Amino acid sequence: MRRLGLFVVFLVALVAAGFAGALLSGHLNQNNGTQTVVTTRSTALSTTTTTLPHASTKVLVANGTQTNGAAAHVTQVLQAQGWSMSTPTNSTSQASATTVYYAPTKQPEAALIASELGVNLSAVRPLTVTAPVAGTTGIDVVVVIGPDLASRAGTLTPTT
Prior knowledge:
Order of helices and strands: HEHEEEHEEH
Distance between the termini: 90 Å
Strand content: 5-15%
Largest sheet: 6 strands, mixed
CATH class of the largest domain: Alpha Beta
Number of strands: 6
Structural class: alpha/beta
């Protein structure tokens, strides 16, 4: 009798294991007509595009710090990389961090400029009237230098 009890427990365990395996492998749900689809949306900015026409993108660099010459230096760096540069200026208010603003359709260019300057891509934003720079008409990308970029502006080297 004891042997029969062990056999029944073994048989129940074997059947349960087979059922669990079938559930995990999807064999039981194969013909039920439903399918689960998981869709993921990515909004990450891409900096892998290197064929962007630098010369056709008008860039303005504004100094948002008290560091003299920071905007002029960054302008030289970007100009050496082929970007079409506007005359550097000062921002209308102090910046707490560097921000790269872009006009409509110019997000890829702004992301590439941010990458070239070592600025975090989370600092790339649409150019709106709240940007702390006057005279942005006709400008595609505005770089407002904050203390983070100003502190290393001298280490950026213009390259051709």
